[in-house]
Design goal:
The chain is α/β, with parallel strands linked by helices. The chain contains 7 helices and 6 strands, in the order αβααβαβααβαββ.
Length: 244
């Protein structure tokens, strides 16, 4: 089955170094606003019936993976998605972190997709740096992404020490810490194009992150930047939605 193959493929700990860790990053399930193509920003958002099913399918797919930590955007749509995943991981404590939120669209929350880009163009401002009234720029989001990336990496990577920081590791077992992140399409794009692209030699990143799309990144801080500290194991994978 997809589930058993998945677990054996990426849970093999005999071929990894103690310095490595993995980020398992997922986007929330489909929401009403996604269907209507309306900018949600930092509004809570509600999953559609399909969105709930997508989250359940993802939860089933990840049920055999041993996560060491879970960091969740504190907005409603990500909380609901995470609940479906964590229902298979009763002992895993979730950390709700506002840094994982979607970009605040300010006055454009509730507006049709593309409204912010049009306004930025009208003002002659690069869209990446355009900050709408009451909202954030994509540069602001990129800074949040970089902040949480380095914080988690510092906590769960070995960094040359005998034991990974903050992780209990039996001396006879090669343990590969896995951290689950449940976030939003815009944030994940900034995460991939910011700290990840900085350490990855090959970055075929998608232009849009699909609902419950899964990306897996293996990070080793002891590898030189030139050789690539990050390996992409999965990017925007939704194969769990194709199963019967």
């Amino acid at each position: 089955s997809t589930q058993s193959t998945w677990g054996s493929s990426w849970s093999d700990r005999s071929q990894v170094h103690l310095t490595e860790m993995e980020f398992w990053i997922v986007r929330h399930g489909q929401t009403d606003s996604n269907v209507l193509r309306i900018t949600q920003g930092q509004s809570e958002g509600s999953l559609t019936e399909l969105g709930v099913l997508q989250a359940q399918r993802l939860g089933e797919r990840l049920s055999s993976v041993r996560f060491d930590a879970a960091y969740i955007s504190d907005l409603g749509r990500t909380r609901h998605t995470a609940a479906e995943i964590l229902s298979f991981h009763s002992s895993l404590e979730a950390t709700f972190d506002a840094r994982l939120r979607e970009k605040s669209a300010g006055v454009f929350e509730g507006a049709p997709y593309g409204s912010q880009q049009k306004q930025a163009k009208t003002l002659g401002v690069d869209n990446h740096y355009y900050r709408p009234e009451g909202g954030e720029s994509w540069e602001d989001v990129a800074k949040r992404a970089t902040s949480i990336f380095h914080e988690i990496a510092e906590k769960y990577c070995n960094n040359g020490k005998e034991q990974p920081c903050g992780v209990e590791v039996p001396s006879t077992v090669h343990s590969l810490p896995k951290v689950l992140l449940v976030s939003h399409g815009g944030f994940i794009k900034q995460f991939l194009n910011g700290p990840v692209a900085e350490y990855c030699t090959a970055a075929p990143f998608p232009s849009a992150i699909k609902n419950t799309g899964l990306s897996i990144l293996r990070y080793d801080p002891t590898v030189s930047r030139k050789k690539g500290r990050i390996k992409l194991l999965r990017v925007n994978d939704v194969s769990h939605l194709k199963s019967s």
